[in-house]
Amino acid sequence: PTIRREDYRPPDWLVPDIALDFDLAAERTRVRAKLDVVRNGDHARALVLDGDELTPLSVHVDGQAINDWRIEDGNLVIDLPADAHVIETEIELHPAANTKLMGLYASGGLLCTQCEAEGFRRITFFPDRPDVLSRYTVKLAADRNAYPVLLANGDNVANGDGLDGRHWAEWNDPFPKPSYLFALVAGDLQANRDSFTTMSGRKIDLGIWVRAADLPKTHHAMAALKTAMKWDEDVYGREYDLDIFNIVAVDDFNFGAMENKGLNIFNSRYILADPDTATDADYDAIAAVVAHEYFHNWSGDRVTCRDWFQLSLKEGFTVFRDQQFSADQGSAAVKRIEDVRTLRAAQFPEDAGPLAHPIRPESYMEIGNFYTATIYNKGAEVIRMMHTLLGAERFRAGADLYFDRHDGEAATCEDFVAAMEAGGGIDLSRFRLWYAQAGTPKVTARLAHDPISKAATLRLTQEAPPTPGQPVKQPMPLPLSLALFAQDGEKRHEQLFVFEDAEADLSFDGFADAPVLSINRNFSAPVIVETDRTPADLAFLSAHDDDPFARYEAMQQLMLDTLKATIEGRTHDDDAVVAAVRATLEDPALDPAFVAEAMLLPSEQFIGDAMAVVDPDAIATARDALRLKLATELDGLWRDRYQRHAAAQFEYSPAAKGARRMRNLALGYLAASGSPEVGAQAFAQFEAADNMTDRIAALGTLANGMFVERAEALAAFHARYCDNPLVIDKWFTTQALSLRADAAEQVVALLNHPDFALTNPNRFRSLVGAFSVNQRAFHRVDGAGYELLAQQIAALDPINPQTAAKMVPALGRWRRFDESRQVKMRAALEQILATPGLSKDVFEQASKSLG
Ligand code: ARG
Ligand code: ZN
Question: Is 293 noted as a catalytic residue in this protein?
């Protein structure tokens, strides 16, 4: 059954208060719920309480046991005479058997919950929709030895002992919240405790709860949390509201983390870090996710979503907020480059394929499938465009008005835009199209120059491609940041041009010589820009543009144009790339972290996205050849940079991160030659490293090539970290991403490794998910990669449909490939669809993917 946005109707019944009583154990948990229900509006409809795999043991209405309830589609339906009643239900759960990891489940020795989006209905019968807000009182009872710590949302109001070694805790959350923000945790946990004093002087107790052995790995997350709390006060004026803020790390988790009110639950990979086990990228991701979940306290919890079509209301805005936060902690330029790379790698392909949807979708079968890069990352770009259009100050006024108007409410994307309009003083009527239209707009820019009149003319066009259900689109307002550079490097013109129509002409006077165009600076609009700039123009910008993103972009475009020319067999000049890379490497004014970004070759997938038909083999060959050419011709520079940025003692600072980034990039280029000397060098780095960034970079270098040290390094790494599942995930991923011709065979072998398991989402993603983005291996012409993925999706589906469904889009890109691959990819999708008992999660993704 398809759910449609236009069918939204306010809830028939509200539940202002709920009391929950849990008798917890891994095998069998008893849940008693007491709901105060109130009829909402003038109707005679029955009370329908959502349920998913629940059986009522008893139902009481106003204290009396009743028998005339019924179950329809798993939901509990009760006819009620009056407008207000007290409903009590009792059910039994089996957390240890809950492999879907939605609702109440066991992870390691813990019991924990995940309710967003529709997991609460797996815990108790309830109107499980985000516009039903309730005050929660929660009592937890469990064995004191097995579960010494009992946590839920809000404040801990009472504790006590029970019979037979049991104890209990009562929690009270004064803020009305939707059921998807409910959480509980029980287990043998220790806390890293700290405190934060808010801007109004309230002292908040902070706790990051983990297994005792992991306590030393929580300091980075705690520091990030306190920095985020302060940042949200400084930048958005948002103060924390409860007296306690707890975070719990769990090993089995379907996503990154969850913003449950006052009790965030995290995938342990976004909490645990120390230099020996976490990379710089892990450290950065931990800070970003800790901040993201914390920021949800306002953008998500205090103001929540009316229905799941509004998901981007909280996710797009909160991603934008965490991006701003991270940009403020280090290099804003590098952060922007990383964010755009993520958008292009994850969202652009989605927007160009069969699963394309607007950031506010019109329909879904399974909401779990809509936690997408479009909702999150494109959603953040849409918020960012409003920020660009309004400027920081007026954007803040709009945000203040939004929080003010909707505090304690379940709001819509429209509410957000309306608040931005009123608070920021701007008309966003046409801008709203960004919420309604899917697909990445394509902009063409042609700059002409007339030496007689000394005028330069810029002709712009925009076009949004058709997407499923949306054959025809309207032009959208695109804030395009533009600049023109004179040949001597001087910036002669700069503006923010809001490009609203299908076409526009702009002219600029006073250019005796043809200027060079810099466009979509800082990636001001999430669009694809096609220009006719020459390799010389791009090389010029890569050396002179004062917008770091545009500078990076010019180098990427130069590399991409060269690679495409190679692939398409056109004559071209690779030397322009070599010269530009050399100039950037030798520019002493540049931040090494930025240089390393700029030197990175476009990914194989990104090259494919720029081609009419993706040819994975030709792409791999051309990219390897360009890497080798840059390696050979700039050999001295790479050696020099490798030495210059030699590892000092580990430090987590922007400068030290930049040095590691540059050094490992140099190692990667040096390794392109395959020379035994570099293999030895990589192995030496692997052994001597005092941090995971350097160690895994060396391992990756060895795993990609034919170096003699490869097997020994992989074995040593596994032996060293066999007790640390997060690091063993990296070991799987490194091999799944290998550029070697035998990568698929390696993955098949690893599926049989004793450490591989379908039950842990991190492990599944580390091997199968990583393999599906290894373009040359996954798209091997014999179809072995497709077959492998189809089998693994079918195997995982009965265990964890949500995680299985996330893997389907890799096959959904079939239209982008040649006929022979198309046939094999479609066959893999058909094979998935033929699996008996397929979940609706995977069914939706696979059937939509086939088109
Ligand atoms: N709200 C969480 C976050 O973005 C993610 C929840 C994911 N839920 C899901 N069903 N995919 O922070
Ligand atoms: Zn979020």
Answer: yes
Task: Compute, in angstroms, the gap from residue 257 CA to the centroid of ligand 1.
Answer: 7
Question: Is the complex ipTM more than 0.90?
Answer: yes
Token couple for 408: 């304690």
Which residues, by Cβ under 5 Å, contact ligand 2, an ion?
A: 315, 318
Nearest CA residue ID for atom 5, ligand 1: 258
Query: What is the C-alpha to C-alpha distance for residues 264 and 326, in angstroms, rounded to an integer?
Result: 19
* pLDDT score recorded for residue 573: 84
Greatest CA separation found in the chain? 96
Q: SS3 letters for 166-185?
A: EEEEEEEEEEEECHHHCCEE
Identity of the residue numbered 29: T
CA distance 86 to 78: 12
Ligand 1 site, CB within 6 A: 116-117, 255, 257-259, 292-293, 315, 368, 371
- How open is the CA angle 736-776-632, to the nearest 5 degrees? 95
What's the mean pLDDT in 393-405? 99
**Residue 163, SS3?**
coil
Q: How far apart are CA 394 and CA 387, in angstroms?
A: 8
Residue 6 CA to ligand 1 center (angstroms) comes to 23
Interval between CA 371 and ligand 1 midpoint (Å): 7
Residue 648 — pLDDT band, cuts 50, 70, 90? confident
Is residue 572 predicted with pLDDT exceeding 90? Answer: no
Would you say 369 and 805 are in contact if contact means Cβ atoms under 8 Å apart?
Answer: yes
Nearest ligand (C-alpha, residue 101): 1
CA–CA distance, 631 with 82 (Å, rounded to integer): 78
